[in-house]
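>> received
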Amino acid sequence: MNFEIHKSLKTEFPETTVMPLVKGANFEKDLKTAAALTGLDYEWLARHFKGDAKEILPLFIPVKNKTFYLLGLGEQACFVSLLKNLRYFVFQQKTKLPAELGVYLLHFSDDKNYPQLAEGCANGIKLGRYQIGYLKSEKSESCAFENKKALVHFYSPPSAEQAIKTGFATAATQMEIFDLVNSPSNKKTPEYLGAWAKASGKKYKYSVEVFDKNKIEKTGLHALLAVNRGSAQEPVFIVMEYKPPKSAGKKVPKIGLVGKGVTFDTGGISIKPSTNMHYMKSDMGGAAAVLGAMELTAKLQLPIHLVAAIPSTENSVDANSINPGDVIQSYSGKTIEVIDTDAEGRLILADGLNYIVKNYAPDILIDLATLTGSAVRTFGYHAGALFSNNDDLTRQLLKTGEGTGERLWQLPLWDAYKDEIKSDIADIRNFSGKPTAGAISAAKFLEAFIENHPRWAHMDIAGVSFVDSEFATQKSASGFGIKLLTEFFKSL
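>> returned
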């Protein structure tokens, strides 16, 4: 998708143009602008359009043979409202849209947050073209605006150019991650995740190494191997590193990421109920966020040093599967009593976290995982659970999440919860066995493997990485974490 910027109305509008409007103090003035642009009566527009979120009013202008859409943003003009409403508009209208679309944004040009508004607009427009179902044998007929040569005319100050480029670049990576998470487990194996990472690294110039089972054994990633024992698919351990091209001799922050990459989770011997088990293809949502953030960081050439690890496996049922009550080893040297084999994500994360800390010593350490039903029961599908041992890091992540629409909320890491994971026969156990504080005890378990790292954050994104939406008939990938992480990196 291409774009052009027009800083004034010296050029004619294309066949179809959309103008997003926000309710509030400027609504009357902006609606009068719309009336002037279309030649329609302001009073008529005011009766038929109120600016509510996702409100769409198509206006046909016979004299010019053009269509002008008014799009409601609701109460606030911000990155999130532009993204959500433009995505909705394009998704709903794309079969009617021509190959060229105009987007009128000049009425927002005095807003101090204008670059973020333009970025959200571009991000939403491109995401609106995404269509789930790439494995269908019968493809839906492509429409003009889905064509690679589609062109968006932004009526906007030239200063928005970089923001628009970023919005499009972000959407391109997000859509790749949508396909990855939405893919079934017979297509998306651990080996496939490794191949995806290698292809992305080659394209965007960051290093990727994929450990096979033999190297995983030699490295001593015992917890990953234990979870994999019941699967016909061999595990992989993906290690990625990006260094900014212009950082020679400069001190830049080093960030360590770890993502849970369980490509299908049956629960193991502690098997899950069959209802909704088909959604467990999404249990690599944390890995997907890390893959997306790594690619987008390299694509935008952000000035940080980023290292990441993704332990990836299936959690399946087999005669070789680990049993509840077994004691396993880990990369850290700690022994783990496995109380519940369905608490497998924390086992592989333990190896990933300890590996990154010991081998890369990052300034900041962050892990993401679709880890617990407890987080879903606490926050539903509106926020991820955040745990951190650093107040400044917590504030930064909460603020970034609010600004990107990928919200987090903090839960405690008090040592009072350590008793939940004490074991009589091993150094630690992986599950309390209680129906309470599940997300917290999981975080306390992970904390035992970070070697007292002073700036660590854990995000439990079980409720927000795979969601119901207007863009699919079943649950589908949200891409949660990609924009959150890259905006956090920018803030450093």
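>> The chain has a mean pLDDT of 96.
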